[in-house]
From TrEMBL:
Residues 3-138 form the RNase H type-1 domain. This is RNase H type-1 domain-containing protein. It holds the Pfam family RVT_3. The lineage of its organism: Eukaryota, Viridiplantae, Streptophyta, Embryophyta, Tracheophyta. GO terms for molecular function: nucleic acid binding; RNA-DNA hybrid ribonuclease activity. It comes from Rhododendron griersonianum. InterPro entries: RNaseH-like_sf (IPR012337), RNaseH_domain (IPR002156), RNaseH_sf (IPR036397). Gene3D superfamilies: Ribonuclease H-like superfamily/Ribonuclease H.
Amino acid sequence: MVEIKPWKLSFDGSKTDRGVGAGIVLISPKGELLQFSFQLDENRIMSNNQAEYEALIIGLEIAKELNIRHLNVIGDSQLVIRQVMGEYKCNHPLLELQLHKVKILMSYFDDIQLEHVYRLENGEANEMAQIASGVKIPDGQNEKLIRVQKRFLPFSIERDRGDLEIMEINLIDD
C-alpha cells in the first residue's frame, strides 16, 4: 500500500479595531507554499471566534477547490479546534452555523486531521490574518495588492553621512 502524504493547512482569524481578517497557509507534500489573506466583512463578523471559524471554512474551501483529499489542519484557536473535534460543546447560534459548515466541508476529504497549536507555531497564518485585518481596502474595490520587499541598502542614517565612497564620476555633455 502506498502512503499518501497529506497537505498541511494552517488557519487564523483576526478581529481588531481596524478590521477583520483571515489567514490561510497551505503546504503541499513537496513543500510548496500557498499563502492567502482575506479581509472579512466587519459588519458580519462580531467576534474573534467567528473570524477563526471563517478562516477555517475558507481554508477548507480552497483545499477542496484544489482537489486535496488528505489534509492535516492546524490552528491556534483551541475553542474552534476542540468544538470541531467534538471535545467542546458549541452553544453560540452563529458559531453553530459555522461549525455545521466546517463539518460539511470536512466530509469531502478522505483523511483529515485537526490539531491545536500555540500561536508561535501558527505564525505564517497569523501574519496573513493580521495583514488582512489591518489594511483598509477602499470602497468599490475587492483587493489591494501589497508588495513587501527586503531592503539590503545600508541603514538610511549611514547613507546620509556621506561615508559611501564614490569610485568614479563621469560627466556627459549634451
